[in-house]
Amino acid sequence: MARLRNSTVLKNLVSVGKPDTVSYPELITEIRRHIDAEKASNLDASKLSQDILLGGGKRKMDSQVSRQDDGNNGKKNKNGGQNGGNNNNRGGPPPAQIRRFREYTPLTETVATVFNQAEHRGIFNYPPGIRTPANKRDNTKYCRFHRDTGHTTEECRVLKDKVERLIQRGQLREYVRGANQQPQKIPRLSDDPIIFTESEARGLWHPHTDAIVVTLRIAGQKVFRILVDNGSSADILFKSTFNRMNLVGVKIEPTASSLSGFTGDSISSEGILNLPVELGSRPCQHIQAVDFVLIDCPSPYNAIIGRPTLNKI
């Protein structure tokens, strides 16, 4: 925290007689920059200590591998190829190539901001550490996606490609510039009829009047006991379920609207939050952004999928 205490921006903020020198966004940006720099410094010191402790054994192992490679140099294997230090050509398939992009979809926020706000959804798979040798990196820069030093989160090409792939799959559309002004018509998944087979009716007594209760993934978490109700004019998430999901950084939009039942009773909502819902399984999988109305009342269900989502899919 010494770097943060010595920061010029922080000194200007707390200086007497200069209360308006630094804005709140500038303060947050300065704090995040110093946190990333301190993480990078600590990570670099940790790697240096490991090199010092393990240096002798590592050099010994490297020398043994080098002598072994020299001994095998020039010998042929059973397939007629040359043996060497590289064992990638052993008859196995080549590693899959990850698609790289040259052009990216314009966003309303920076890539680092998108990652910070959407990380809790569980849609980002963290890559391994940066391959560039530590002595050739800028160890003052820290990447939250790689969780390693060498470049900043905003400069990360791997993160930019990951965000672009997610957008092309229909996710993170709320960060696409112009998406709200020019909404695109999303076609239905297919024209195939929705049917229920005998195998799916096992364990049920016939005839029955049971409600349709399903399990879906909401914000990357499996949620059980979700009622499908085409008589509901809203998609509802109960507050007890929301609290158990422990979603960090989810923005709840305040609203003054209330919900009314067929008895005329009404209940006020806690707000509206937008969460991705995964429907189906691969290859027939669809991810739909749903505006849930947050309700604080007891219920045998964790959520209710109503007409708004049913009409979209």
Descriptive account of the structure:
The protein has 313 residues and is α+β, with helices and mostly antiparallel strands. The protein has seven helices and ten strands. A six-stranded mixed beta barrel has the order 3-4-10-5-9-8. The chain has a two-stranded antiparallel sheet with strand order 1-2. A two-stranded antiparallel ribbon has the order 6-7. Strand 3 and strand 4 form a beta hairpin. The chain is elongated, with a radius of gyration of 27 Å. The relative contact order is 0.09. About 13% of the residues have low confidence.
Core attributes:
313 residues; alpha+beta; six-stranded mixed β-barrel; two-stranded antiparallel ribbon; elongated
Give a count of the beta strands, DSSP E runs of length 2 or more. Answer: 10
Mean pLDDT: 74
Low-pLDDT windows of residues? 51-91
> Proportion of β residues?
15-25%
User: For the CA atoms, what is the radius of gyration?
Assistant: 27 Å
- Helical stretch tally: 7
Q: What is the helix/strand order? A: HHHHEEHEEEHEEEEEH
Oligomer: single chain
Distance separating the two termini: 50 Å
Structural class: alpha+beta
What's a quick, concise take on this entry?
The protein has seven helices and ten strands.
